[in-house]
User: Which sequence fits this backbone?
């Protein structure tokens, strides 16, 4: 398999990562499970550390996300009340006064991640790693993933047995039993396109955003029989399409690109910056055995400079 002049030489499977207080607000209008970029960012951070190790010829690429458990930290005062996020209070200030609450949404996660291990095409002719390199790679990444943030949360532990496993490219289906039972996050943009078309058949002014909202809606429809009795039925736009969920899939530039140091209050002044807004699509939680080709489940970064798009995609779909 080839990825932008890099060859996949294997997969690292991180088994049963327990994450505490991950960021549950994935975008300005979605919440529950962290954004895809939270997991791609963790893989990228480990990839940068690889460049300073004895395995500098390797890098980490796309990420398969399998969720075992997700518990948003929310509170509901009564069965008729809205859910609200549990908030934490900061320590008191130096003058003894109470610090203000920073409103944020958190969740506890148990996830398994499979990450592509890449090598430059011209640096490895046989496209394989020897046992020593594999052992060193596993040892390094097992330590690194527990030393950094994952989707904004703290990594508390990995599986007690075989926390990190290396899988050869030809044995990609071995990942399925390693991550089960779980649900894998897949791109469902085709479903969004079809649902948009169905809405536009009824009203040509409907948009993809209307279809995205309609996926989250339950339609309660009254039906009256011949005897005058009313029965209620519940319909959903996603019925028969699986477990569909709205997800943020990247950003669209809404300003010019500023050179390094030009934008005030940028997170990192060493790189160019740009004002952006979120882009949304549909995702689908799929049981691993329902995925025919597991290589299609890996999320990757994609940059379209001409359209000013910064996306997370599954390119092999």
Assistant:
């Amino acid at each position: 398999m080839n990825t932008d002049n890099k060859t996949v030489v294997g997969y690292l499977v991180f088994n049963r990562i327990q994450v505490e207080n991950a960021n549950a607000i994935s975008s300005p209008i979605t919440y529950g499970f962290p954004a895809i970029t939270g997991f791609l960012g963790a893989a990228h951070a480990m990839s940068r550390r690889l460049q300073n190790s004895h395995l500098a010829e390797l890098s980490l690429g796309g990420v398969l996300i399998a969720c075992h458990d997700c518990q948003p930290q929310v509170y509901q005062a009564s069965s008729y009340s809205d859910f609200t996020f549990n908030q934490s209070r900061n320590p008191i200030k130096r003058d003894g006064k109470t610090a203000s609450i920073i409103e944020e949404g958190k969740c506890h996660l148990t996830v398994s991640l499979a990450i592509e291990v890449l090598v430059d095409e011209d640096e490895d002719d046989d496209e394989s790693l020897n046992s020593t390199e594999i052992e060193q790679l596993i040892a390094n990444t097992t330590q690194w993933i527990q030393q950094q943030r994952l989707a904004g949360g703290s990594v508390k532990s990995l599986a007690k047995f075989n926390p990190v496993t290396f899988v050869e490219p030809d044995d990609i289906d071995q990942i399925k039993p390693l991550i089960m039972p779980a649900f894998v996050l897949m791109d469902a943009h085709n479903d969004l396109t079809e649902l948009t078309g169905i809405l536009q058949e009824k009203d040509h002014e409907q948009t993809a955003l209307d279809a995205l909202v309609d996926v989250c809606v339950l339609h309660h429809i009254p039906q009256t029989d011949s005897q005058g009795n009313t029965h209620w039925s519940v319909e959903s736009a996603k019925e028969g399409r699986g477990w569909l969920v709205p997800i943020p899939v990247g950003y669209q530039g809404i300003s010019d690109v500023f050179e390094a140091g030009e934008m005030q209050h940028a997170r990192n002044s060493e790189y160019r910056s740009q004002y952006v807004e979120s882009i949304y699509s549909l995702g689908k939680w799929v049981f691993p055995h329902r995925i025919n080709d597991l290589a299609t489940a890996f999320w990757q970064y994609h940059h379209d400079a001409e359209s000013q798009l910064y996306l997370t995609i599954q390119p092999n779909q």
